[in-house]
Amino acid sequence: MSESTATSEVRTVRFTVNGREVAPRVRPLARLLDVLREELGLTGTKEGCGEGECGACSVLLDGELVNSCLVPVAQVAGTKVRTIEGLAKDGGLHPVQRAFVEHGGAQCGICTPGMVMAAVALLAQHPQPSEEEIRTGLAGNLCRCTGYMKIFDAVAAAAGSAGSEAEP
Ligand code: FES
Ligand code: FES
Fold it and tell me: Labelling 26: which of 36, 76, 131, 166 has CA 20 to 30 A away?
């Protein structure tokens, strides 16, 4: 079998998304972003640049923030993926989501799922982040609408109540 055939053949990739086991039949080099949106119906994760520059497609992979547009789905076999759909619990928003709503951290909303996931990852590592740590933690996520201050305010407001809710 040629290498190109091996990488383009459809196969089953098993992993966990938001606590649910999934086993989509996909090409190994398909982008995790596309598999989430098109195979699994999780359209909360957005595509911006498609090149790893904007963070709109951010998800947690075993607790680490990744750009899902850069991750071939074969790499997530056996891992735990968490998307924006996995944050709300018992019908209630995650504290970071609530803070974005209350502080006007979302306008057009394209960057918002990625921003929220980046904030969840940041607060898991730094439950009480300094302003500098918030800016650094969100540096990989671009927003065209808010001017960032409302987003930084939202993350600061969520600090303390949200950190323990991120997966390790
Ligand atoms: S769409 Fe993935 S980083 Fe921009
Ligand atoms: S709210 Fe529009 S890009 Fe951030």
Answer: 166
